[in-house]
Amino acid sequence: MKKVREWQRVLIPYEQAVEELKVKFKSIRNEFRELNEYSPIEFVTGRVKKISSILEKSKRRGIPEDQIETLMEDIAGIRIMCQFSDDIYKVVELIRSRDNKDLKIVYEKDYISNPKGSGYKSYHIIIKYPVQTAFGEREILAELQIRTLAMNFWATIEHSLNYKYKDTIPEDVKERLRKSSEAAAKLDDEMCEIRKEIINAQMLFEEKSNVVSDIVKNINVLSSNGKEVEALEYQAKFEEIFFRGSDWDLQELLEEIKGHLPRYKIFE
Ligand code: 0O2
Ligand code: 0O2
How far, in Å, CA of 113 to CA of 117, rounded? Predict the structure, then answer.
């Protein structure tokens, strides 16, 4: 078995990779925020697996010590948390767009479409990542886990229970965990629906305010073209529709006003 000092040496490029990847994903989040745009990344964490966990996992999986670095894919791990489940696939696309640039995608595991028996949900991408060390370039494997805040909450609790029970969680607790994973998924779906509602409402509001501003501008054009009577009629109609009519009535009114104007003077 490797001496602890040797392990420390082995883990140096993994530590560097985790630091670099954290900076890269946090920068994506910061870029969106600086542009006042919505960021699909809420926050990012990362860790290098502890030596004890590496040894325990290699024993459990029957991985020979000299093959740990080529067969254990999550010695370097990055976790990207998203607010909404839709964001996960946006982050996956962002990562795919960097394939063969600063990282190489080895394969992907979609535990969201295919959750694990435990109820675990997350999107995993295994990558190869080049690290420049004092002894030249080293390409290491890293695991990117992309999940929602609700998935992360569930996984954190379940992981700590596993730790407490040393992989022998009683059957009734397992069943309750599976149920709570479904509840977390329902929460994610609800939040996604609310988000769509908010975005739709914002778009409808924007559309209505554009139509209103076009109506007002075109009534002014009618008036300045000597069509004072029509302008006053449309003004009254507009007030009536604005307070009592539908968005569709407003759109129709705009079309009607445009019909009375020379083509080159229409606002749209
Ligand atoms: P910011 O700008 O405050 O988000 P390190 O980079 O070493 O400081 P590391 O190793 O990435 O930290 O992991 P750590 O300490 O677990 O936390 C990583 C980042 O995630 C920290 O922000 C935390 O504030 C943030 N974080 C943890 N839990 C939550 C959470 O529930 N919600 C939100 N929004 N953020 C959380 P940073 O990296 O200091 O930067
Ligand atoms: P850590 O560092 O404690 O998180 P295996 O670990 O053998 O089951 P494999 O093939 O290495 O599986 O990869 P897999 O299944 O993609 O899992 C790798 C990591 O995903 C795990 O790392 C966990 O972080 C997470 N994970 C997978 N399944 C579960 C689960 O049922 N519950 C929770 N909470 N997390 C899970 P490790 O090795 O556990 O290490």
Answer: 12
The reported pLDDT for the residue numbered 268 is 66
Active site (annotated) includes residue 190: no
- Span 72-87, pLDDT tens digits: 999 999 999 999 999 9
The pTM (predicted TM-score) of the whole model is 0.79
Separation between Cα atoms, residue 13 and residue 1, nearest integer Å? 20
Instruction: Give kind and range of the element (H or E) at residue 141.
Output: strand 136-148
Contact partners, residue 25, CB within 8 Å, separation at least 6? 41, 44, 78, 80
159 lines ligand 2 (CB under 6 A): yes
Give the active site residue among 143, 171, 175, 228: 143
Domains along the chain? 4-171 (3.30.460.10), 197-265 (no CATH)
**Angle, helices 171-224/247-258, rounded to nearest 10 degrees:** 30
φ, ψ dihedrals at 15, nearest 5°: -65, -40
